[in-house]
């Protein structure tokens, strides 16, 4: 496995691969890899000739006061995990190589970025969109894979890749979970043993809301209340948001209709650690009479 | 010569060229080609294996009320001029192919865009930066050439290409002028015969300011006044700006120093037609005593 630190070298390498008509699979990460990242590498491996994994804790997607400085890092361990899962190249640039003195360009989405994560972290998605555009120009991937755990990010990346005509197919992989349902995240390392035990409440709250939808519930506020009530059963939890929305547009109608694809989104603080999770649910068909009643009830 | 209308086809074609290690030279234009464009094609031809010229009147860089609708278009004539000058491929997409329904991403610079053209046309450079990023992802050029006539645009494109890590070298070509000094522009066609005769006043005013700098003038306001006075000799002219600035940063110090690279920038309306022009001047060395006097005078 090769480690490349400089973006120009990475670019040169990718041009060689493209000249050889190799399909480049790309796994962008902030490092501190876990089994979720391993599954992304293995999944993209299946369709790519060469797998590039980037490790870059991107300063521009952290706001002042967030955990940029203390974000966990362990390059030697990351290298091992990447290699064990079949990665060919690690791209591991210095911040100064990515954002030199005089840097001054941003990629900004005009939609999808105001609510949920964007409401709690107003500059976050500008930082994400910008670094993804940079990384795509450096790695020039055929495929890029992102985990569904960062749901809103997957929408942002899809939108920007399409809008800016990146010749790269975006692949979204299911969230990788611990046995008790907790979504794998590099930030889980911040949790104390007690907090870790409680943290499965995110997944269980999502599951309760999903069960309600499958049972016929379509009122957005009631669905949100089910998640809030479930989360509040944990003492000391601080809910940032627990909401449902259209899974494509993130719009929040009063009532969902059968056939709608709905995303359930949760962000909470357990102790000092901010955790997010989500589930996508297809609203099932119900009898026309019942549907009429719901719509009239708006 | 090949004409490609769809961005996916263009991308596919460029991938083939890259696989053959061909150097792609790119001339982005809004069409209605003139001898200035011809010179760009011939210049990039010298260093490229394949020359791609795009013709796209980019709606996103025009504000409401500007001349997007009436911007001159003549595709058949453009094709002839492009071919005569050695162009290999014209990329000529539909607006809907470039900005489909649901489009929502912008590339924005944080500097260089507020003053001069950016002051008169506040959203102009967002539109330029965005379409250039899109075109670079579609054409995947080795080199892209821009005329110096749109001076501020050349700075914007250089900044964004560097910041977003586009693997493309930006080449700036000198402004191509008519015999009386008028910078060639597709918009010159708007001028009446009388206006056309008067329009050389832009170049003559730039020349007067350059002569003053070469003669020792370093006070920015005096240099600007020289251009204003010269332009005002034309009845009915409306000056948008006539200014001097640091040629790299566009900063406007009170006094320029020897060794400074200064750009003289003019935008005026002659009748209803908005014209721009510029000159870059290297401030010559003068005696230390004289320089001290100027600096003390700040």
Task: List its salient traits.
6-stranded parallel beta sheet; 21% strand; 2 domains; Rossmann fold; Pantoate--beta-alanine Ligase, Chain: A,domain 2; 3-stranded antiparallel beta sheet; 10 strands; 298 residues; alpha/beta; homodimer
Report on the structure:
The structure is a homodimer of 298-residue chains. Chain A is of the alpha/beta class and 298 residues long. Chain A has 2 domains: 2-173, Rossmann fold; 186-296, Pantoate--beta-alanine Ligase, Chain: A,domain 2. Chain A contains 11 helices and 10 strands. Chain A has helices spanning 7-19, 35-45, 75-84, 95-98, 117-120, 124-139, 151-163, 193-198, 201-214, 220-232, 288-296; strands at residues 2-4, 24-29, 50-55, 89-91, 105-109, 143-147, 169-173, 238-246, 261-270, 273-282. Chain A has a 6-stranded parallel sheet, with helices on both faces. A 3-stranded antiparallel sheet of chain A has the order 8-9-10, with helices on one face. In chain A, α6 crosses α7 (151-163). The longest helix of chain A has 16 residues, at 124-139. The first copy, chain A, is globular, with a radius of gyration of 20 Å. The A-B interface holds A 7, 11, 15, 18-21, 103-112, 129-130, 133-134, 137-138, 140, 159-160, 163-167 and B 7, 11, 15, 18-21, 103-112, 129-130, 133-134, 137-138, 140, 159-160, 163-167. β5 of chain A pairs antiparallel with β5 (105-109) of chain B, so a sheet runs across the interface.
């Amino acid at each position: 496995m090769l480690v490349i630190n400089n973006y120009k070298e990475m670019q040169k390498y990718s041009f060689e691969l493209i000249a050889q008509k190799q399909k480049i699979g790309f796994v962008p990460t902030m490092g501190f890899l876990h089994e979720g990242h391993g599954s992304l590498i293995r999944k993209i491996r299946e369709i790519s000739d060469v797998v590039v994994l980037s490790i870059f804790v991107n300063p521009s997607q952290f706001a002042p006061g967030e955990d940029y400085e203390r974000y966990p890092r362990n390059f030697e361990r990351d290298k091992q995990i990447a290699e064990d899962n079949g990665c060919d190249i690690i791209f591991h640039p210095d911040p100064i190589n990515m954002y030199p003195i005089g840097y001054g360009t941003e990629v900004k989405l005009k939609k999808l970025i105001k609510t949920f994560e964007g409401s709690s972290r107003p500059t976050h998605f500008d930082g994400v969109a910008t670094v993804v555009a940079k990384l795509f120009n450096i790695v020039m991937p055929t495929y890029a894979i992102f985990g569904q755990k960062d749901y809103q990010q997957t929408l942002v990346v899809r939108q920007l890749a399409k809008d800016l005509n990146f010749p790269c197919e975006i692949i979204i992989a299911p969230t990788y979970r611990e046995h008790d349902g907790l979504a794998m995240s590099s930030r889980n390392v911040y949790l104390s043993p007690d907090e870790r035990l409680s943290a499965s409440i995110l997944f269980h709250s999502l599951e309760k809301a999903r069960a309600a939808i499958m049972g016929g519930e379509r009122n957005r506020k009631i669905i949100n209340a089910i998640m809030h009530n479930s989360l509040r059963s944990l003492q000391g939890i601080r809910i940032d948001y627990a909401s449902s929305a259209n899974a494509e547009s993130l719009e929040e109608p009063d009532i969902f209709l059968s056939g709608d694809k709905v995303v359930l989104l949760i962000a909470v603080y357990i102790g000092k650690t901010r955790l997010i999770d989500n589930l996508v649910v297809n609203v099932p068909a119900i009898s026309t009479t019942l549907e009429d009643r719901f719509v009239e009830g708006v």
